[in-house]
Amino acid sequence: MVGIVSYGAYVPWYRLGPGSVGWTAKGEKAVANCDEDSITMSVAAARNCLGDSSRKDIVALYFASTTAPYIEKSNASVVAVASDLASDIFTADFGSSLKSGTSALKAALDAARASNKQALVTAADMRTAQPRSSMDETFGDGAAAILVGSSNVIAECEDSCSVSHEMLDIWRDAGDKFERSWEDRFVIEEGYQKSLPLAISTLLKKHNLTPKDFNKVVFYAPEARRHTEMAKKLGLDPKTQVQDPMLNLVGNTGAASALMTLTAALEDAKPGDRILFAGYGDGADAFMFKVTKEIETARKPGKTMKDYLKSKKMLPDYETYMVWRGLISRAAPSRRPPFRTPSPSAMLREVDKNLRFQGTKCGACGYPQYPPQTVCTKCQAKGQGQPYSFADKKATVFTYTLDTMAPTLDPPMVVTAINFEGGGRAFTTMTDRDTKDIKVGMPVEMTFRQFYVSEGIHNYIWRCMPVR
Amino acid sequence: MAKGIRDKVAIVGMGCTYFGEKWDQSATDMMITAAYEAYEDAGIQPKDIQAAWVGTTQAGVRGTVLSAPLKLQYIPITRIENACATGTDAFRNACYGVASGAYDIALALGVEKIKDTGYSGLETSLSRHKAQDTWVDPEVFMGMPAQFAMAATRYFHRYGLSPQDGKMTLAKISVKNHHNGTLAPKAHLHREITLEQVMNAPMFAWPLGLFDCCGVSDGSAAAIVTTPEIAKKLRKDYVLVKGLGVACGADQAQLQDDYDFTHFEETVMAAKLAYAEAGITNPREQVSMASVHDCFSITELINYEDLGFSPHGKGKEDVDSGFFALDGKLPVNTDGGLKCFGHPVGASGLRMIYELYKQLQGKADKRQLKDPKFGVSHNLGGIPGRFTCAVCVLGKQD
Asked: Which residues on chain A are in Cβ contact (under 8 Å) with B205?
């Protein structure tokens, strides 16, 4: 039996919505902070999916996004180390299509079937639409992670079916900053409303089933109205059968959208439930899942979709969003030197330290320390340090400052010294915070973020944030 | 058993430029001004200098940064870099050169040209390549005010000071230093400020605002050191080196969860070395005056306690009572400190020694103290847990 073993989603803390000055759309959408990208959101979803469970059976990671930070250079390999996966695994980037998330899931299920091991899928997107366009109103940011395997399966994949459809409905080339599309009626009628039902009907015909035979139907839609139309076209009961794709709360998260909705469906699923699941983009992928008894005893994600929907902060204004996306620039508080480009040879040496957030625990005195030390800070024993991860450790703020002069798109820069549960200290910066809530002793957790980009090198760093 | 430095080295001449935004002067110009004032003060010729130590963090590399402008002819010169303690450490090395018997007369000079960088504060590590770390190093993301602001936050928390009380205590320190600066012609800033101004100033790194931060300026200072025997032949009022201490942290603040930020062990340890050499057992009673590192107001407050002038947690009481004012029992930063001179990093330590030297000679004009016996200078450079600290004790001849 092959299927889903675990799942986790990620929704950024910030939203554009009622109360954001200059935001005119009716709905709300999730907005990645200026230190987030598709890699960091994938890591957040992956860590939410895996928690502190063993990674030893995971033999592959598939990263899916149409907004991968690197065009050339693996994004999946960054996600793999920051999610603390082993290095002797298969990693692959899926991109280009909005169905890259469901396509990666299909490939992962095939890999799990062939290897009897586990494969992790992450999907994340943060597409930028032309300001004030209708897409700008609906594009949201987020991520999902699905762990598939052949044992401890909570939702068995009974079958799947895919169609490929060559057409230009929406697209971007490498130089495009914004999404492009053809006329809306063409996009919907010739693309979405043809491919998605075709994949579903082909799959169901094979098994002699109808959409009525499913407890929950989870499918992609570009916006809420199109989702409702599709539910009607498939003959679904909107009250009981349709999983809300959160288009007016999170927005259309592109390659991540369908998988994020699937994680929400799994949160409420019961043994025996049948879930019909479909993603769209240049064709469609459709899946049939059957929920097993394991779901009652399996580990739940660290944070549920319900947690994420509740935990949010409205951006004060649309201008801040424009600044964060580099669409307009705001004057720096003072003239500061430019960030230096980090050295790739130093980055290579320090992968475990920088990306896994791994320190050492002294074998002689047992004191945990970050960054990793060869000579122990406490007892000066040399070479006794064992790898010790701080990424999942809770911590408290020992002291802090709000630096208004620091070069950041999200001033002031909150600089902290934090103490970890179980011992150890780190200097970090704090993100996703309300500065008025910060105080000595407040609990924080760690989050993987982008620090800055220099010469095309994306520099990632672990930061702390108030516990969400 | 080490015997220490006490009374083995004398200062016979010093020079100090006017500090400030010297748009019209290069590091070279300032080094020449400081050195020639020192030569004249000592009554010696450049050819009498047998060895030199030059302290700078960014004015240049190698000993030649000093020999070229001064045209010192093929003598041993070493460049010293030890963050904010650079100037004091250049002085310390020159003293050791004399005390060892290797040289009769040595020159220590500190210089910094900050105002050509185009940045209103100090350039941080953001733009510099470092040997030991990539960008997760705290110096990459922490500006200077932030590093000390974290100490202020914790100090307030530990001693139960409300933000208002804590900031008011710090404000009193800045107001005092600004007052002293009005009496020091060579200072960069010469104006009185009020507590209200300090409290309402723009915030840089909470809780530190504009007036909690020292100025940024260019400058140079120099000292000629020799043996007491030679000193006697040069002048009557030479000043004796009583003790020197340096201590370096090892990232304890970053690594150890019991590092508290409310005291800096580097200062405690450097002072311990210097006081032991100088024979000071009760600094609060024995020290007549001090020039302490006041890069930020909180640094000066913590220094009072780490240097043994106030018990830990009691600095506020001494601030409130005026203990450190010019007319107090132990005047601190009689010339206005870094607050008014600014902080040309390599020059600051020697500028502090210059003030103590003038005070001990009775040549401090309007800010002259009555018959000071011991003066302490102190520099603290780097970030919490990663400081380098230098302490110097000077005294009159017995």
From this structure: 401-405, 412, 415
